[in-house]
Amino acid sequence: MAKKLAALDVNNCIGCMECMFACSRRVGRIGLDKSAIRVRSAGGIERGFVIVVCRACENPPCAKVCPTDALKARKEGGGVVLDETKCIGCGFCVQSCIVGAMFWDDERDKPIVCKYCGECAKYCVHGAIGLVEA
Amino acid sequence: MLMKVEDMNKVLYIDLTKKDIRTEERADLFDAYLGGTGVAIKLLVEECPQGIDPLSAANPIIFAVGPLTGLYPLASKTVAMFKSPLTGNLGESHCGGRSATAIKFAGYGAIVIKGASDIPLYLAIAGDEVKFRDASSIWSMEAVTVGRVLREVEPGAGVRTIIRTGTAGGKMVRYACAVTETYRHFGRLGLGAVMGSKKLKALVISADKSVELPKPKRKEYQRVYDEIQDVVVKSDAMAKYHDLGTPGKIYSMNKLGGMAYKNLESARAPEEVARELSGENIAEKYLSRRISCAHCPVGCVHLASLRELYAPGYYFKTSTMPYDNETIYSLGFMLGMERAEDYLRLNDAVDTVGMDAISTGVTLAWATEAYAKGLITKEHTDGLELKWGDGTVYSAAIKKIVEMPNEFYQSLAKGVEYASSVYGGQDYALAFGGNEMPEYHTGLACYLNNLTGARHSHLDSAGYDLDQKLIGTDFSIEEVASALLKEEEWRQIPSSLVVCFFARKVFTPETVLKALGAIGLEGWTEEKLNDIGRDIHRAKMDFKFREGYDLTKLRIPKRIFEVPTPNGLLKEEDLRRAIEVYGKMIGR
After folding, report:
1. CATH code for the domain of A72
2. So what's the ipTM on this one?
3. Which band of pLDDT confidence, cut at 50, 70 and 90, is reported for residue B157?
4. Which of B362, B491, B499 is nearest to B434 (CA)?
5. Which of left, alpha, beta for B182 (phi over 0: left; psi -120 to 50: alpha)?
6. Where in the sequence of chain B do the CATH 1.10.569.10 domains occur?
7. What confidence tens digit (pLDDT) does each residue in B310-335 have?
8. What is the pLDDT of residue B584?
9. A6 & A36 share domain
10. CATH architecture under which domain B244-425 falls
11. Maximum Cα interatomic distance, chain B, rounded to a whole number of Å
C-alpha cells in the first residue's frame, strides 16, 4: 500500500525542526531550505506549532495547474510526483496549494515536493508526525 | 543558498554609529579556537578597549556560533560576549531558541556590533542583506510585543530569530536581558542594557543558506549524526530534562539543605514550601507546553499557563511564562513565596520588563532584609512594604526598578553589589564578582566557583555538582580548586563548538573529534582540545585581570559562613585559601 506523511498529533510537537533537517539531508544539504516539511509557531510559541506537510490530495490542485505536466498525480495513494526535466519554474503549483505545502527551491527554481519517504518521521522522537496508509 | 564548511568563518561587523557593515573571513580565529566562546573572547579583546564604560559606544557586542552549530543535534546555543555593565568586567551569556541556527544559516560564524545609534534602531539581517531600521515606534515596548510586531513586519525566509530587549533594556537596568523567541534569554550580566545603550532594540536574523558537505563525507556525517541522536534520545538526561525539566531537582536540593531561602536566612525552606514550589507541583498544576531550541529533540523549555480573573464579570486572562530551576530559586525561594502561582506571576512580571530573574530576585531579597532591619524605609521604597512572600509588592517593585522614580530604585537597577555599597547590609548582599548568586549553598566548591568562574555563573565550573559528590568524604582545598579549574577549562570546548551544556555528557572528547572529522575539520586531537580549552579560559581570565579583577580583593558576604551547608559550615579562611590556591594554578 502507498504511504503518505501526516501530522499525527501536533500537540506533541516541540518545535525542534529535526524533521526539516532530516528532509534537507536527503538532498545532501544541512539546513532548512531544502525541506518539504515546515514547522512554524502558530503565531506565538505559547499557541504551539503548525506542521505543514503535503496532504497527498486525491485530485491534487498542484498537478491540475501545472502547465507542462511536470507534476503528475501519484499512481496510488494521492499526492504528486515531479518530473524536473519538464518543470519551467512558473510557481503555479505553489499558488494552488492553499495549505502552503508546496515549497520552493530558489537555487534551482523548482518546487520542493514531498516524496512520502518518511525520513523526517524517523527523527521525530515525540510522535508528532509519521507515515500512514494513504 | 549554498554554503560550504569553509564558509562558516565569516564575521559580520556592524557599526551602529556609521550605519555601515563589512564582512571578513576569520579562518585565523575559527581554525585555532573553533568558534563560540573561543572566537568571541578573541574578538572581544580585539574590539573592546581597556577600561571603557560598558554603557559607552565603545563596548562591542559579539554573537558567536561554532563549527557544530546547526549541524548536529543539541548544538543549539549562541554565545554573546561584551563588557558587563553589571560587573564592569567580562560579560558572557548563552542562549538557544533559534538564535544559533539562524546565525549559522544566515552565513555567519560571528556578528560584531560596535558603536551606538543616534536614533532607536533594529537590525534586519536576512542572509547577506543587513538593514538598519527605525525602531522609534517600538522603543518603549515590552519584549513580547516587539516580537509580535517584528514577526509580522519582517519577511522570514526559512528560520529566523528575533533577539530583543524589553523596557528594562532601554532604561539600562544593569541586569536587563535580551530575549529570543519570547521565552529564551541571554539572561545574565546585562546584554539588554548594552543593547539599550546602543539604542539597539532588536535584531531579526533570518537564514537562507544550507551547508553542503563534499559527497565522500556525507555517509560518515550521517553516521555520526545518528550516533549522537541515538545517545541523546536514549539517555536519562533526555527524560530528565523533558519530563520535569530543570525544576525536577528543586525539591531534592531543598531537602539536601543547599537551597538559598529568604536571602539565605537558611538553606532549606519548610517542607510545605518546597512541595509547593517543586517541579512536580508546578508541572501538575500549570505546565502547558514544552518546547525546544532549534535542532534539539529534548524540549527542556517548560511553559506554564496561569488563568486568572482580572476584572469582575468573568473577565479572565491567561498568561504564559517560562519557568526553570533558577527562576524558581530566585523569585520563589529567595523571596519567600509560599504559593506557586505567586511565584509564576512574579516570573511573568520580570519577563514582561526583560530583566535577569536571578539578579532581580537576589537584589529584592537583599532589599527585603535591609527593609526589615531598618536600613531602608518606606521613603526609599516609594511606599512599598517589602515583605517575604508578598508577590503583589514585589511585582510593583520590579516595575519601579525599571521606572527608577528615585535614587533607591536607581541603585537597585545597578544590582545588589552597588545598592548595598550605598545603603549597607553588605554582609547579606549575595553577589560574587558583582554578579548575584545562583541557587546553591552546597559548600566550598560552589562558592569558589562563584568567585573564580570567568562569568561568576554556576555553569562556569559546576561547583554545586562537585559539592554534592564531596558530601561525607575527606577532600583537600587543592583537590577542589584543581577539579574546578579542570572542569572550567574543558567547558570552554562545548561553549566553543557550541553545544548545549545539557549535552556535555553526550559530547565526550571522542564524540567531539568524530563530529568535527565528519564535517571535514581534521587534525583535532583530545590533547589539542584540552590545550585550547585552557588557552580560551586563560584568555578570558586575562581580560578579567586587565579590567581590574583581583583575587585578593574579592568581597565575600559573611552570610554564607553563618548558615550550614550540606558539607557543614564553610569557613572564610578555607574559602580565601582556596582562592589563593586557584590563583596560583592559573599563574596569578
Report:
1. 3.30.70.20
2. 0.96
3. low
4. B362
5. left
6. 244-425
7. 899 999 999 999 999 999 999 999 99
8. 98
9. yes
10. Orthogonal Bundle (1.10)
11. 72
Cα distances from B77 to residues B20, B192, B349, B375, in angstroms, run 27, 18, 26, 42
B235/B494: higher pLDDT: B494
Beta-strand runs (E) in B195-325 = 200-206, 210-212, 287-291, 301-311, 315-323
CATH, domain B436-585, list 3.40.50.2300, 1.10.599.10, 1.10.287.70, 1.10.10.10: 1.10.599.10
Q: Which of A20, A46, A49, A129 to mutate to test the interface with B (most CBs of B within 10 A)?
A: A46
- All CATH 3.60.9.10 domain ranges of chain B, comma separated, are 2-211
Give the list of residues 6+ apart from residue B248 with CB closer than 8 angstroms, or none. B240, B279, B280
How far is the alpha carbon of A103 from chain B, nearest alpha carbon, in Å? 11
Do A15 and A48 lie in one domain? The reply is yes
Q: Which of B121, B90, B76, B96 is nearest to B187 (CA)?
A: B96
**pLDDT (tens digit per residue) in B545-583:** 999 999 999 999 999 999 999 999 999 999 999 999 999
**Per-residue confidence (pLDDT) for residue A47, from 0 to 100:** 87
C-alpha distance from residue B385 to each of B338, B344, B379, B380, B414 (Å): 17, 21, 10, 10, 21
Sign of the alpha-carbon dihedral angle for B562, B563, B567, B568: positive
Who among A44, A107, A126 is closest to B1 (CB)?
Answer: A107
Tell me: do A8 and A45 sit in the same domain. Answer: yes
Q: What is the mean pLDDT of chain B?
A: 97
* Inter-chain CB proximity B303 and A45 less than 8 Å: yes
- pLDDT single digits (tens) A97-112: 999 999 999 999 999 9
Same domain membership, residue A49 and residue A3: yes
pLDDT band at B158 (very low <50, low <70, confident <90, very high): low
Please count the other Cβ atoms lying within 10 Å of the Cβ belonging to residue A58: 11
Domain that holds residue A86: 57-112
pLDDT in tens, B431-460: 999 999 999 999 999 999 999 999 999 999
At residue B380's C-alpha, the angle toward residues B377 and B386, to 5°, is 60
- Predicted local confidence at residue A42, as pLDDT: 87
Q: 3.40.830.10, 3.30.565.10, 2.40.10.10, 3.60.9.10: which CATH number matches B2-211?
A: 3.60.9.10
Distance from CA of A40 to the nearest CA of B (A): 9
Per-residue pLDDT at B543 exceeds 80: yes
Nearest CA in chain A to B211: A30
Structural domains counted in chain A = 2
Cell of B300: 527542556
C-alpha cell at A10: 501536533
Instruction: Tell me the C-alpha distance between B27 and B25, whole Å.
Output: 6
| A1 and A49 part of one domain | yes
> From the candidates B2, B210, B222, which should be mutated to test the interface with A, based on the most A CB atoms within 10 A?
B210
